[in-house]
Amino acid sequence: MRVRREKLARLQELEVNPYPYSFTRTHLSADIFQNAEQMMEKTVAIAGRLMSVRGHGKVGFGHVMDPQGRIQIYVRKDEIGDENFEVFKLIDIGDIVGVTGEVFVTRTGETTVKAQRVELLSKTLRPLPIVKEKQEGDDRVVYDQFADKELRYRQRYVDLIVNPEVRDVFVTRSRIISNMRRFLDDQGFLEVETPVLQPIYGGASARPFVTHHNALDFEFYLRIADELYLKRLIVGGYDGVYEISKDFRNEGMDRFHNPEFTMMEVYVAYEDYQFMMTLVENMVSSLAQEIFGQKIVTHQGREIDLTPPWKRVPLFEAIKQCTGKDLYGKNLDELRSAAKELDIELESFWREGKIIDEIFSAKVEPELIQPTFITDYPVELSPLAKRHRDDPRLVERFEPFIVGGEIGNAFSELNDPIDQRERFLAQQKLLELGDDEAQMLDEDFLRALEYGMPPTAGLGIGIDRLVMLFTDQPSIRDVLLFPAMRPEKSEGKI
RNA sequence: GAGGGUAUAGCUCAGCCGGUAGAGCAGCGGCCUUUUAAGCCGUUGGCCGAAGGUUCGAAUCCUUCUACCCUCACCA
């Protein structure tokens, strides 16, 4: 860095501003490559980060990276003049440059810009981790890749500069979200925004973050889900609403969980969970179609076929298929002994629903590779879902599973205010029994239901997990630009 | 929360049974007017993650701590 500062001083002696205000770019690299023949001998102005330099005395080559790729530049002292060549020699790898010149093809056949002028657009003070690469056929061979995960996550900006495949992941992420938004808009649903700071958290089973509001002198919770507010809007008369937003859950972190994560929730009046299953399989498969041009994605070496319709299997049926045990209607003792036979450890305060869920997670989930809807959950697991029309011990609920993981959760929404109150009261008992993830009773939400909510189908989709599936990433940290990390020592303290 | 792994130059890494720190790339100084992991010559660069201990002597052995990664558990 000392050397870079000296270069800054020398640039200033040459009356070069190392941080000028703008540069007019006429072409991106891909524009030039796509029409290489028409572009020959045309003058272009390109801009980007200088990623490599190969000096040859009075000549130099380098590659400039812009949002579409890398293009080679060729700098001759006799073309750009002595003074400009001095500036060129003071430019380091990593600096942002603008190059004006003519397009031509080198002896080795690479389309290149022959500089008439090289401008420094921003001087870097820190050296970039240099990544050298070579093209071998279609393969890009990278040498000494910037690979330290901690550094990559903490300094994502460097990761993005140096690792183009990381950049691609986040482009795909953005396209997934914008396509999903378009899909939902096309259905006529209204995108809304509901509070992040909530006096009562609800809509999911999880521990919340707590924060203090000074003016109101009140402890708010960061939302763990959007559900209860969106359903208030269905009560309010919007027939279809959705929200794409961050939720916050104060739980452990691993490759599937980050304390803040992105959720899409949608609620549709006059529909039920069957409608929602169709919506999910249509939405996810059409996303794949838009992004990959086909309904098949490859994840961790496995081909996943997203073509509708997806398999639909009731929960107890799935457990029976995987374990040979029919748990339907079994009492607490029978479930405990079944779990024991399957080598599943239980907490003392767990009730029937929780034990069933545990057995399902351990024995069935890992088997659900191709897209599958698991349907019809026990009522005590789902305090916000409507009872099954054929069986009051179940609810009309489903979760879509792909590659052994759930990517969402949906149900026919409970709109009976009396039943809803009873379910909340049952949750309160769980709270008292020590289940710190049981849901809170939300009196205002009940009041809303008492005003009448139409039959409604609701759905939540975990965007991050969907992005993991689509971008073939094994960890949620690889689909979050800035995953949660313990702060560096110098950070976070005043 | 349990177990395992990693931490050495800006980056990627080597460093054996303890003997005082090494390579490639980057950087810096040269040479080179079509190179592309450019090349050639020269050269700078390190509190060996932190703290303690054993020892005449520790990057290396031991203990503790910190951060990150992986697996499991928790968490839908």
Plain-language structure description:
Helices cover 33% and strands 28% of the residues. With 494 residues, it is of the alpha+beta class. Strand 19 (391-402) and strand 20 (405-406) form a beta hairpin. The chain starts with a helix and ends in a 23-residue tail after the last helix. The structure holds one RNA strand of 76 nucleotides.
What are the SSEs and their pairings?
Layout lengths: L1 H12 L15 H6 L1 H4 L3 E13 L3 E8 L2 E8 H4 L1 H8 L6 E10 L5 E12 L9 E5 L2 E5 L5 H6 L1 H7 L1 H23 L3 E2 L5 E2 L11 E4 L4 E5 L4 H9 L4 E9 L11 E10 L3 H20 L3 E4 L2 E4 L5 E4 H9 L8 H10 L10 H12 L8 E7 L8 E2 L2 E12 L2 E2 L1 E5 L4 H17 L9 H8 L5 E7 H9 L23
The structure holds one RNA strand of 76 nucleotides.
Query: What is the average per-residue confidence, as pLDDT, rounded to a whole number?
Result: 90
Shape: elongated
User: What is the radius of gyration computed over CA atoms, rounded to a whole number of angstroms?
Assistant: 29 Å
**Percentage of residues assigned to helices:** 25-40%
How many separate helices?
16
* Strand content range: 25-35%
Largest sheet: 10 strands, mixed
User: Which structural class do the helices and strands define?
Assistant: alpha+beta
- Stretches where pLDDT is under 50 for at least 5 consecutive residues are 490-494
Terminal residue distance: 27 Å
Number of separate strands: 22
